[in-house]
Amino acid sequence: MKNKKNNELAVCGFAAVKALGKEHPESIRRFYYSEENSKKFGDLCRFLAQNKVPYNMVESKDLEKLCGSVHHQGVVVMIEEKPPVPLTASITTSWIQSGESALLLDRVGNANNLGAIARSAAFFGIKNIILPINESQSLITTSTYRVAQGGMEYVNMYSIRSVVRLLQDMKDKMYRIGTDVRATTPLSKVNKGRNNKPVLVVLGNEEHGISQVVKDNCDCLVVIPSAFSMSQEKGKGASNPDSWPVESLNVAQASAIILYEITKN
Predict the structure, then answer these.
(1) How confident is the model at residue 264 (pLDDT cuts 50, 70, 90)?
(2) Can you give the chain as a three-state secondary structure string?
(3) How confident is the model at residue 75 (pLDDT cuts 50, 70, 90)?
(4) Residue 100 has pLDDT above 70, yes or no
């Protein structure tokens, strides 16, 4: 939940607030907690007291009002709402020089999915997530932080104006991977042709996947094999993906599997 007047964003959820208090306590403007959590954030309260930042014990109903959710888990902090950092050539150059990979989201519209992707990225040590400036792309919300379970404190969010332009700029510099349910390259072969380049993984819209022009600017299109596609390979399944009961995974689930594959070696 946002407080537009004060340019604030509510962060709730025990793991999210714990990680925020550990990694970026200076970003907290106010802290509210339930009685049951009064002894679980002693270090944070001491830091806030030293820096004259207010913190208060409040009722559960007040926490719900502050964050706009019943899933607050007894803690809410208000932080300054900051947009993703505009991605520059110097930033991508530093990635290439240090071998850092990144996730590029192509109109992922669900804030919960964005949070789950951030959680997976943090788990697998991928620090960079790129969001297009597009009305179809989810912004960073209270739900994003809560679902990320603290992962937001371990990733960097960047913004770009054009997905295609970035992919074109990264040609021969990063290994550009897209996902497509009709691709012929299984995910297990994703690193073939990578040549030790950092990876730029493109994750697509929940309903339509990545667009055709984005596919055209990828070095490799991969598919996560399903039980139905594997049955098809053995001549036992339906050949048309449209006839399968479930055609694809949720984008957040897919991101975890892809990140495991590209980071396991």
Answers:
(1) confident
(2) CEECCCCEEEEECHHHHHHHHHHCHHHEEEEEECHHHCCCCHHHHHHHHHCCCCEEECCHHHHHHHHCCCCCCCEEEEEECCCCEECCHHHHHHHHHHCCCEEEEECCCCHHHHHHHHHHHHHCCCCEEEEECCCCCCCCCHHHHHHHCCHHHHCEEEEECCHHHHHHHCCCCCEEEEECCCCCEEHHHCCCCCCCCCEEEEEEECCCECCHHHHCCCCEEEECCCHHHHHHHCCCCCCCHHHCCCCCCCHHHHHHHHHHHHHCC
(3) very high
(4) yes
* Side chain identity, residue 137: Q
| Residue bearing tokens 């520059």 | 88
Task: Please state, in angstroms and rounded to a whole number, the distance separating the CA atoms of residues 187 and 116.
Answer: 20
End-to-end CA separation in angstroms for the chain: 40
In angstroms, rounded to a whole number, what is the distance separating the alpha carbons of residues 103 and 121? 8
CA distance 159 to 129: 9
Residue 225: predicted pLDDT: 83
Instruction: Say how far residue 229 (Cα) sits from the centre of its chain.
Output: 27
CA angle 189, 219, 110 (to 5 degrees): 85
User: Which of 15-29, 179-193, 241-255 shows the lowest mean pLDDT across its residues?
Assistant: 241-255
Q: Which of 179, 167, 240, 176 has the alpha carbon at shortest distance from 208? A: 179
Q: What's the longest Cα–Cα distance across the chain?
A: 69
